[in-house]
Amino acid sequence: MKNTDLIAIAEEYGAPVYVYNADKIISQFNRLSNAFSDVPNLKLNYAAKALSNISVLRLMNSLGSGLDTVSIQEVQLGLLAGFAPEDIIYTPNGVSLEEIEEATQLGVRINIDNLSILEQFGTKHPHVPVCIRINPHVMAGGNSKISVGHIDSKFGISIHQIPHLLRIVELTKMNINGIHMHTGSDILDIDVFLYASEILFETARNFTDLEFIDFGSGFKVPYKEGDIQTNIEELGQKLGGRFKEFCKEYGRDLTLAFEPGKFLVSEAGSFLARVNVVKQTTSTVFASVDSGFNHFIRPMLYGASHEIVNISNPEGRERYYSVVGYICETDTFANNRRISEITEGDLLCFRNAGAYCFTMASNYNSRYRPAEVLWYKGHSHLIRARETFEDIVRNQVDHSGLFQPRADQVIAK
């Protein structure tokens, strides 16, 4: 997309606004598919939590993607978007047995990550196929908050608990049809990923009726020009070859599954915000925009560094700015960042805004959540309208008659 396209979208739909480039999503999906083209059975299950707009889900479905879900609501969204139940895998964490049973009734694939629920579910539903999430105790990922495969993680069944796991399967006569892991996000070291994969292969040998092995995802994408990223092609060559070897050892071809989220949608997203105030202090020049961490929380939550471009003046002289929001507490997108000279009214573009950005947006400070726009085949399509005041109060119950105004009091001195 060109800057002029983004500016036109902001003028038509207002700012702040999220924009997603469908062409980039499609190219990322094809890139990952091609990297593992030598694998006979490959299944990419898009991680809905990254960006769950129903139009994006429909796009993924049209590409032949499956869907990775972590809540019953995401399962329902996937079904509404047209995914077949068997193309949806439900991988929750810490949910009730009742929610898992609800997902079972909808016909989706079930992935269980703790021994307690595994035993309860297997006792009540021994004939329902179940995938098991393993914790390989491998530290991977770019931030402790998104590293989920280490020994202190709440996710998965520890590899040290495999004997207990096998005992539950034996006693309940459960049907285990898949093995799964997810080590974390922003994985750079392919060797660490391959090491964890060997643990998964070794675990898989304990089960005779597997249909698939799910290796999770977490592939690193570049956040700026020249940034390092996961070498997907190298991973495809090494892991793809090893997977085929394992299938020969296992005795039949299994499906190699991934659950990419950020890899597919991060680079496709742009977040546009307009500059309200340029404020010079004794030490800093602040560019204050008409947004905040209520719309775009990753820099404050994860310390994420998103490239920020002044698309109203892309060729201007660069100066140092701290880009901040309008939320009534510390609300910083970037500190002392070199950006083309900013004046009030300019439009700033935050890159890599496709994953875990709008889905984490809130109404903090009673602000409206922004609109979402999909750029597809050279045209913009509104896929979520900007919220209004009616949206803020829709589910609130106003007991206006319950409270009476306080009578004026005169205090004598």
Automatic annotation (TrEMBL):
Its EC number is 4.1.1.20. Substrate binds at R298, Y302, E329, Y356. It is an enzyme of class 4 (lyase). The modification N6-(pyridoxal phosphate)lysine is found at K49. GO terms for biological process: lysine biosynthetic process via diaminopimelate. Residues 23-266 form the Orn/DAP/Arg decarboxylase 2 N-terminal domain. The active site is at C328 (proton donor). Its cofactor is pyridoxal 5'-phosphate. One of its GO terms (molecular function) is pyridoxal phosphate binding. It holds the Pfam family Orn_Arg_deC_N. PROSITE patterns: ODR_DC_2_1. Keywords: Amino-acid biosynthesis, Decarboxylase, Lyase, Lysine biosynthesis, Pyridoxal phosphate. InterPro entries: Ala_racemase/Decarboxylase_C, DAP_deCOOHase_LysA, De-COase2_N, De-COase2_pyr-phos_BS, Orn/DAP/Arg_de-COase, PLP-binding_barrel. Pyridoxal 5'-phosphate binds at G218, Y356. SUPFAM superfamilies: Alanine racemase C-terminal domain-like, PLP-binding barrel. Pathway: Amino-acid biosynthesis; L-lysine biosynthesis via DAP pathway; L-lysine from DL-2,6-diaminopimelate: step 1/1. It catalyses: meso-2,6-diaminopimelate + H(+) = L-lysine + CO2. Belongs to the Orn/Lys/Arg decarboxylase class-II family. LysA subfamily. Specifically catalyzes the decarboxylation of meso-diaminopimelate (meso-DAP) to L-lysine. Homodimer. This is Diaminopimelate decarboxylase.
